Amino acid sequence: MTERVVIVGGGIAGVSTAASLRAQGFGGEVILVDAGEFPYDRPPLSKDFLTGTKDIKQIALQPAQWYDDQHVRLINRTTVTALRPRDGAVELTGGQLIPADRVVLATGGGAARPPIPGLADPRVHVLRTADDADRLRLSLTPGARVLVVGAGLIGAEVASTAVRLGCEVVLVDPVGVPLAAALGPELAAWLHALHDRHRVTTVRATVESFTNRPEGIEAVVDGVAGVHDAVVLGVGMVPSTELAEAAGLEVDRGILVDERQVTSNPAVLAVGDPARLRGVPRTEHWEAAQQDGARAAATILGTPAPVPTAPWFWTDRHGRHIEAVGHMEAAAHTVIRGSFDDPTFSVFGLRDGLVVAGASVDDPSAVRAARRLIDRRIPVVADRLADPAVNLRGLLRG
Ligand SMILES: Cc1cc2nc3c(=O)[nH]c(=O)nc-3n(C[C@H](O)[C@H](O)[C@H](O)COP(=O)(O)OP(=O)(O)OC[C@H]3O[C@@H](n4cnc5c(N)ncnc54)[C@H](O)[C@@H]3O)c2cc1C
Questions:
Q1: Is the distance from the beta carbon of residue 283 to the nearest atom of ligand 1 less than 6 Å?
Q2: Ligand 1 centroid to residue 342 C-alpha, Å
Q3: Residue 79 CA: which ligand 1 atom is closest?
């Protein structure tokens, strides 16, 4: 019987595990260990928190009182240094052991740092924590020359926020149309072009080196040197798998789990960004991490796991809100609903008469409908999907 669950990591996956355990009636002890000051949310770090519109308290995942109310013991500013499955415990900094019947690894990850010479310069930033965002914000002053490396989700959001704060932004990426696999080529191209319409200079190239100069940090991009006041790397994240590896768990581009979040050791579960379902690529999205937590709680309680839904994420840039669901890379063809000049529009990915993906600009309801069409495998006629006059909810009736 599980009497004590120790959750390692207080991101959305860890907090969701704790909340789901209580919501599903777990009466045992729940201990949440986190290295930070208190559990906070990460998506605002490149958005409202970076602009300074929201402060750290406003991005807390739960108010302080919640932990008392839910009888979740939060051990903050503390790192779990080792798993001791044989002792049924985890070890904290300083050597203290905490007994645990089940351990949930919710350790997230760190920002990737590619092997570019000169990367150690203090003007080169990454963005994964609130401290990173606080440091970066100091550099995003009006007129500052900012080089953003990587035009994926986080790089694009940082570029958008920086230009909004009055910086002169150059966004460099070797890929011509970033995010094409996730959003489909048409929408991805439109989104990337949005940067130029908002005074962000996009460059298709690779950064070769950084050099500290009195006038700023020099970046050599495809052989051409340019000087900047700050550089931001948005080139992906590295899952934190060290604890799992040291404990002998199976790790392969993530901590391998089954569909119930159980690792190769039945006493240890893994959730969120570092967990990877066997045979499937790892996801790095907020909702997926939250759902992992609910599934881990069900596993611990021995109750049925929540039914999996098509994966979903959102991103915001240049005042536009984008949502996407499903697997656009699996689509045989795409259908555009509305026009890219309209205030809102969507793209659907289809295969064999079924919707496999949907993405929208400023139209979350279209993505909600796409999600239902995907999850319920409702056949659709492409022309009707493309016609903005046809109510998407009507299509849900099949
Ligand atoms: C800047 C930014 C913007 C984003 N924007 C979006 C977005 O718009 N939409 C979207 O869908 N997703 C977005 N994401 C992704 C989303 O935030 C992540 O998928 C999500 O935060 C993953 O949650 P997690 O709990 O797995 O990991 P994390 O949030 O990384 O949490 C892990 C926690 O574990 C702690 N920890 C690690 N190791 C230990 C240890 N040994 N002992 C104790 N504590 C430990 C860490 O300190 C951390 O608090 C964004 C991410 C970032 C960084």
A1: no
A2: 34
A3: 42
- Distances in whole angstroms, Cα of residue 198 to Cα of each of 121, 192, 206, 293: 28, 11, 22, 38
For residue 398, what pLDDT is reported? 67
pLDDT digits (tens, 9 = 90+) for 184-201: 999 999 999 999 999 999
- pLDDT tens readout for residues 340-383: 999 999 999 999 999 999 999 999 999 999 999 999 999 999 99
CA 142 to chain centre: 28
For the chain, give every domain's residue range. Answer: 4-110+237-301, 124-233, 319-395
Task: Name the closest-CA residue to atom 4, ligand 1.
Answer: 43
Both tokens assigned to 275: 């967990």
Contact 257, 222 (CB under 8 A): no
Which CATH number describes the domain made up of 319-395? 3.30.390.30
- What confidence score (pLDDT) does residue 395 get? 84
CB 249 within 8 A of CB 265: yes
- Which residue puts its alpha carbon closest to atom 8 of ligand 1? 315
- Banded pLDDT at 397 (limits 50, 70, 90): confident
Domains 124-233 and 319-395 share a fold: no
Candidate CATH numbers 3.30.980.10, 3.40.1190.20, 3.50.50.60, 1.10.3720.10; the one for domain 4-110+237-301: 3.50.50.60
* Ligand 1 geometric centre to CA of 105 (Å): 12
Which tokens go with 82?
């080792």
